[in-house]
Amino acid sequence: MADDAPVDETDDARETEHEETETPQPEQLHGAAVTRPRGETVLHPSREQYLDLVRTLVDEGYLQCVDLTAADYLGHPGRADLPEGTEPERFEIVVGLINHFERQRVRIRVQVPADDPTIDSLFELHPGTEALEREVSDMFGITFDGHPDPSRILMPETWEGHPLRRDYDQGRIPVQFKGAPAQR
Question: Which of 74, 162, 164, 168 has the fewest CB atoms within 10 Å, i.e. is most exposed?
Fold first, then answer.
């Protein structure tokens, strides 16, 4: 006679209501939020998590750093491509890693504030990032703590400013027009 047992619909209703109001938690990997734009795995660690996350990924087989670059989001409010809990900052470091054993790629995006544009260097884990970090430092003014040679790589040492910052004055070079060459 189990079929005749009264069904407590209030418990079912409460359970359904609880499921509807519960906000799904963002996916996490090694403590960093994960997004999957266009099927790609993108990790969003904080600056404090960045070096430990890359170290963990190296241990998992992500032995090649294929790219390290930056972006300046000055004048780009309302960014909607970051996961919940990740505060958008002016600068972003973007790192691409490959795991050749499992044929996987991962991209790391770290927010870097304008008032403290520093982040740990990956040189110890990926020595090939030496020139890439120098280029980012030269073009965006982001400092990499622990980098063995923080000197400029593209611009002269005496150059003032960082040309890829959005607030960098482009300056002006006067163009001198010459007369059209005479017909021969």
Answer: 74
What pLDDT digit, counting tens, does each position of 56-97 carry?
A: 999 999 999 999 999 999 988 888 889 998 999 999 999 999
Distance of alpha carbon 113 from alpha carbon 142, whole angstroms: 10
Q: What are the φ and ψ backbone dihedral angles of 40, each rounded to 5 degrees?
A: -90, 145
Tens of pLDDT, residue by residue over 4-13, are 545 555 555 5
Is 163:136 a contact under the CB 8 Å cutoff?
Answer: no
159: closest CA among 132, 144, 141?
141
pLDDT exceeds cutoff 80 at 26: no
CB atoms within 10 A of CB 18: 9
> Which of these, 88, 115, 130, lies nearest to 138 by C-alpha position?
130
Q: What is the pLDDT of residue 24?
A: 66
